[in-house]
Batch of 4 targets.
Target 1
Amino acid sequence: MYNYLQQVERKLLLMSVLLPLALTGDAQSLQNSIKKGMIKVKFSTEMASILSDARVSASSKGLTTGIPSIDAVARKVSATNMYRLFPYDANNESNLQKQGLHLWYVVEINEKTDLNIAVQQFIQLKEVVIATKIIDSIDSMMAQLNYSKNKTKRPKQ
């Protein structure tokens, strides 16, 4: 029960921080927290076996996967690397697959490339379900929450 309440409290705190940003239109603050040169992409379930067999070749010259549609978009957005957001872990792979987390990839692109264009290019692929920018400050905020929770532990009730 205590863990559940901690999770709810974290979510409420996160919403209380993000909601004012959305309501006040403080787009500059949000823009500053977006990671440059990276987007997250979730591929369709049909792509799981194809991606696991893909030979990703990453270099400063560009990204190739052996999947023509992905390679074409990678060239357009100057992608330089692609890797799983949740790395392969033999002990937990079945859980990752159940939750669909094995389908999430990070695509690194040239920092000069507009992230909105990169997201739009990837989302147009039939192999892609979701493409989004990576918000850096949420990770920092969650780390801070964990730090403050561990610092001020409450007694179990």
Target 2
Amino acid sequence: MAHLYEEFDSLQHASERVLPPVFPSEEHLESSFPMSDRPLYTLLKRSSSVDNIESAMNAGQDFIGQDLCDHYAFRQGKVDWQIWITVGEAPLPRKLVITNRADEARPQSVSYIAWNLKPTFKDTVFKFTPPKDARAIGIRPLDTK
């Protein structure tokens, strides 16, 4: 049984390793994602079709910081977007550039992404302790019979 605490999220039990779905809906999680205000996020959501990509190209390789990256460029509607992905065992995005072609000034949004692949956390980071005035509210599955 999960519990809700007043003014807090629900507490739910999960297995040791929980992998979220790719691009879950923000409405479902009632939360926002980093860079979710960027056009690339919208382009990559499952609801967006790759059929809408008008052109794509491998633009070569370049260094982002110390990492050699493959550079890809895409055109989709009024937006051009580029992504640099690290070459090797950890192919992670390192840079995103979004260009709004609907605006004559062609404004760009540039995001650099740094990854920590070996983070360390104390167990207390993942332990929820409700405030002393919180009241647990039981939640049970909906009876569909």
Target 3
Amino acid sequence: MAKRFFVRVQLHDVAEGDDAYVTLHEEMEKRHFGRTIVVDGVEYKLPWGTYIGPSGQTGATREGAATLVEQAVKATVKLASFVIVETDTGMRVGNLEPVEQPKSAEEELMSALEAIGKKKRPVISRNSCPSCRTCVR
């Protein structure tokens, strides 16, 4: 497994409604640090202010990663504390929220039908409308 950087950033003096973390997330993303992690095939959201970055990017050392984090923090115009851990082992996670996967068109249609009380799957035939594939011509 390739080494990755696990980063936790805590911004100081952030008032409720302050967009500093939104700016931080955008700046970290520009530097190839993500806010999700895949464990056992399931993608999870990392806690607020927590990031994972591949070592194959610029900053393949802890010092390089620290420079990237400092640049991102500087864009928030806030003071911050951060921790960087370089790891090449798997991670154990607990109680993280799974990333919601987008529904397929069929799943969206079934959800809509269920919402109005119809539990049957629509019949798709050769005579179906080419735009929605469900109504019959």
Target 4
Amino acid sequence: MPASAAASTDASASGFPSNAAALGNVSPADLTRIVLDYLGKKGYTRTEAMLRVESANAIHESDIDNLAGEIDAAYRHAYIMVRDWIERSLDLYKGELRKVLYPIFVHSYLDLVSQGSDMAAKAFMAEFSVDFYSGRPEDIETLRSIALPDHAIENSLAQLFRNNRYKINLSRTVFDLLLHHLHEMEALGGAIPIRFLNEYIDVQISTEPATGREVDKYPEGIVGHTSLQSKQLDQEVLQLGERPMDKSMQKEIVARIAAGEQSETTNEEEGMEDAPTIAEVFQNMKREGTEDSPAQETVPLPPLYANTWLSINALVKRSTSCQRWRSYGI
């Protein structure tokens, strides 16, 4: 019998594929089993035992890469799943449901960074940060600078989110809808948002019905985190009107004008009987508040020079001068 034929018969009897090309289609696990069978049949018991121990403890690098890739993709899939479901929801519920997205985004990114998936974290940030940048640019830029696991431990913003619950307020109906959807999709990505809700988010249930509810009436975020007010600041109405005159100053000027007019009643100039009084002139001069004027207590200014006696005297004299000029028709 030719040597090649004998080798083929021996290989077939030992369990090896007769065609060497077929080895390319054999999985690593099958190949290990074939080798173990061969060693057992040949009597290499010690070698077989050592191989069994090592193969039991061995984890193939390709398996690790595949598993890591699946975990990284799970965060992206979970975020898209929640966001798309919210956007398909009724307009009545969207405003409340969107509050959940930001903490999910932050903790998804921090999870990816913490587990060393720097490329996946970078891609996640690039794809989804646009959803929040306009309202929280400072937070997004700070998060973008967190690129390594050590950064996630040392960065103050990361620790703020990890050690404090993000507060949101939802109506009972909206919260029940959210939980039902996440549990329904738990095997398809819902498990990640459920974990975030349990560990990092403080959901406060409102007794108000979702219908006609003012979504922005309730505070959102982590207490003490200044950037959480950016959305509220954007909604503040700017008051650009002229600042009204101080009330105490007005009273003092009116009182001094009244005292001065009484002392001059016996010494009126000819032709001034029909002229406006000094008090009337002052009423036209003083600054009154308008709808867009800031209130006195909302403008943190130091005491103005107008509260001094010198300024009050100057305004009284100015009012008197205006009254005299008007009496002459000027």
